[in-house]
Amino acid sequence: MRIYLPVTPAEHAALRSGAGALELPAGRSAWAVHASARTDRPGEDPEDLEYDALQDAVHVALTSGPQEDPDRRALVVAGDVPDRAVVESPEEGGAYGIELPAPATLRIAAFHVSELGARAVEADDTDPALLWFDASEGAAALDYAEAPSR
User: Fold this and answer.
1) Dihedral angle, C-alpha 114, 120, 121, 125, nearest 10 °
2) Where are the beta strands (DSSP E) in the chain?
3) Measured distance CA(89)–CA(100) in Å, rounded
4) Residue 15, exposed/middle/buried by CB under 10 A (0-12, 13-18, 19+)?
5) Which of 76, 99, 135 has its CA nearest to residue 1?
């Protein structure tokens, strides 16, 4: 299953090293197009559902970071875990929320970084524009996410 995971500071070292996978602890929240999300939206294009799940993860990354840095960018990793590694968690994560009930290995597919910082995204009335980085570009994605934003 493809999941979208806001990156935490604890994962920065692995990204800088070029790791192709992240070891995720039990209880970790993420966002994905799980069975109920598909069932609740019959006829929706699967790519639109993936976009919505990604945007939910970006929103959480922008609103749950350190409040003393309102210009921080969101950094979200897109990756794959076995379907059995996740359980739906709509109470905690909204329509696309999932949780890992046990530790799991996330195989990194790509990184997404918001073009603007949290304050600018909040002032805008559209979904945040995202920059895409290949799975091999974790360090570059992290550098961009940490660079001063507008």
Assistant:
1) -140
2) 2-6, 21-24, 29-32, 75-80, 87-88, 97-99, 104-114, 130-134
3) 9
4) buried
5) 99
Distance of alpha carbon 51 from alpha carbon 86, whole angstroms: 19
> Are residues 81 and 9 in contact, defined by beta-carbon separation less than 8 angstroms?
no
Quote the number of domains for the chain: 1
Q: Output the pLDDT for position 68.
A: 64
Low-confidence ranges of the chain (pLDDT < 50): none
This prediction's pTM = 0.92
Distances (CA, A) of 36 to 20, 29, 40, 118: 29, 17, 6, 30
CB 29 within 8 A of CB 97: yes
CA dist 103 and 122 (Å) reads: 33
CA distance 98 to 109: 18
Q: E strand or H helix at 145, and its extent?
A: helix 138-146
Structural domain of 44: 2-146
Structure tokens given for 37: 């999300």
Q: How confident is the model over 115-146, as pLDDT tens digits?
A: 988 888 888 877 889 999 999 999 999 999 99
CB-CB contact of 100 with 130 (8 Å): no
